[in-house]
From TrEMBL:
PANTHER family: DNA PROTECTION DURING STARVATION PROTEIN (PTHR42932:SF3), GENERAL STRESS PROTEIN 20U (PTHR42932). Belongs to the Dps family. Signal peptide: none annotated. Gene3D superfamilies: 1.20.1260.10. It comes from Dyella humi. CDD domains: DPS. Pfam families: Ferritin (PF00210). This is DNA starvation/stationary phase protection protein. Residues 18-155 form the Ferritin/DPS domain. InterPro entries: DPS_DNA-bd, DPS_DNA-bd_CS, Ferritin-like, Ferritin-like_SF, Ferritin_DPS_dom. It comes from the Bacteria.
Length: 156
């Protein structure tokens, strides 16, 4: 069996993957919430929010795959169940259907949480000399910060 030899020690790869697993859980949880809000939004901004949420959940879906594949690149198994994600994320589940303003507010909070998680990934990956993960996590950080800003702007 071939061993993984990408210039990062196994313990460092595992530490990075642990942080990436939290980012994956945040990404998937935010994807699910955004998709639900896309289905259930109502009110005077229905069309624009319905379309915006669709763009956002599609981006999150692709991002989840990118994060999971980075975990696998580090030769660690990626979490992939709701129960695993529930233990790894701090994004709160929404069991009801809030009004559009609360939907937007929750998504702002979710993207801010994911941005903070991406910052932690960057710190651990940088300490491990894992430039590939630093690069990917920096892209995720920028995407979450921009999306939070765009959503926050709707509430002003």
């Amino acid at each position: 069996m071939a061993t993984t030899s990408i210039g990062i020690a196994k313990k460092d790869r595992e530490a990075v993957a642990k942080q990436l697993s939290k980012l994956l859980a945040d990404t998937y949880s935010l994807y699910l919430k955004t998709h639900s809000f896309h289905w259930n939004v109502t009110g005077p901004h229905f069309n624009s929010l319905h379309t915006m949420f669709e763009t956002q959940y599609n981006e999150l879906w692709l991002a989840a795959d990118e994060v999971a594949e980075r975990i696998r690149t580090l030769d660690v198994f990626a979490p992939g169940s709701y129960s695993q994600f529930g233990k790894l994320t701090t994004i709160k589940e929404e069991p009801s259907v809030p009004d559009w303003k609360e939907m937007v507010n929750q998504l702002v909070t979710g993207h801010e949480i994911a941005a903070a998680t991406a910052r932690e990934v960057i710190k651990v990956a940088d300490a491990a000399g894992d430039e590939g993960t630093v690069d990917m996590a920096t892209g995720r950080l920028k995407a979450h910060e921009k999306t939070a800003w765009m959503l926050r702007s709707l509430l002003k």
